[in-house]
Amino acid sequence: MVWFEWQLATRFLKEGKTQTLLIASGIALGVAVIVFITTLVTGLQRTIIDRTLGTQAHIVLTEPDKELLASVKGEQVFRQTQPRPQRIEPILNWQLIEQKIQTDPKIKAVSPVLSGAAFALRGQADKSVAILGIQPEAYNRIIPLKDYLKQGQLQLNSNEAMIGTRLADDLGIRVGDNLNLLTANNRQISVRITGIFEFGIKDLDRRWVYLSLRSAQNLLDLQGQITGIDLQVYSLFDAEKIAQQLQQQYPIKAESWMSSNQQLMTALRSQTASTTLIRFFVLISVAFGIASVLAIAVVQKQKEIGILRAMGLSQRSVLVVFLIQGGLLGFIGSILGSLAGMGLVKIFTLFVKSATGEPLFQLALTQEVFVTTMLVATLTGLISAAMPALRAAKLDPVQAIRYG
């Protein structure tokens, strides 16, 4: 019986070729817009996030602010947060915290870091720099330093360092040259430059100096201590929730990339909301188009429906016929629209480029986008066909034949 209903539905669509073509084209246009906008915004957001997180950890653990307790007359106790002093605050028992965090299934990578301030001296030139003591292999899993190296190699043995391209230009340094580092406490070491990196961020390329963790501890007079633990998580947008959980479990302060980039998160949420609204209204337009065409089809096929009902075709079968038409229109339109959307994406990448001739950003043209859009468009076709289908199913055979 379903095969008969399928044949009847396709026959009705073929008889109204002009209407079928018009509504399929309208659906295809809507789907193409959805595919293109979704791909464009997703690719833009992914590029922004990659560039933002390319130089920072998902979560940074530091020593929490101290609390002072003061009792005043009686048993009342007041808590007051003491601002962080202008000195390095190491994390207490960091080895134990690191060991426990590494067993957390939500954490992808862990890297201890020691940071502090110093002056870079070479000849008559001196620059204020930020010292970062790291374990290269562990830190590279957080921030892929190898991808940013312009010269030299990722190597940090004792008294070796890596610096940014702008700092190297300011001091006239090349790979293999020596550089003196001096702290405010008059502790000084001479390091050999093994690599020069370029993050593409002016301040980082001019100020960051990477040392081995042990060398940084010697320079900053913090033997066996660190000031932070950088984390990378598996689920990027769960970073804030994970940070809050870690802060409750351990005596540390946890700050996620989401809390340290509030403006970025606001922009991303605004983009997502506007894209969702665009897709919603496009789907509403598609639904009204399908419903209008099928409503007209019910009027045009009123006599045929009455004859079929008089011959024994059930109301359910009539309902299924028009639902099949709606689903077919949505499915065919979604295929054509997906292909058109793919073409728009290719045109965009071909003509919209940066001054260097490279694409502005990588568009997220994934199979998931096509499958999801096709399913939604087909489902929209079925839903929008419901009212015309119910109307057709409720037609009285005698009245339909008489006035059809």
Task: Walk me through the structure.
- The chain has helices at residues 2-15, 17-53, 94-101, 136-140, 145-148, 165-171, 202-207, 213-219, 239-249, 257-260, 262-300, 302-310, 315-351, 367-384, 386-393, 397-403; strands at 59-62, 66-71, 77-82, 107-122, 125-134, 149-152, 160-164, 178-182, 188-197, 208-212, 228-233, 253-256.
- The two termini are 25 Å apart.
- The chain has 16 helices and twelve strands.
- By secondary structure, the chain is an alpha+beta fold.
- The relative contact order is 0.17.
Strand fraction band? 15-25%
Low-pLDDT stretches: 68-74
Instruction: Give the radius of gyration.
Output: 33 Å
Please report the distance between the alpha carbons of the first and last residues: 25 Å
Strand pairing plus helix content: what structural class? Answer: alpha+beta
Shape annotation? elongated
Q: Number of DSSP helices?
A: 16
Helix content: 40-55%
Count of distinct strands: 12
Along the chain, the helix and strand elements come as HHEEEHEEHHEEHEEHEHEHEHHHHHHH
Physical arrangement of strands within the biggest beta sheet: 4-5-10-7-9-8
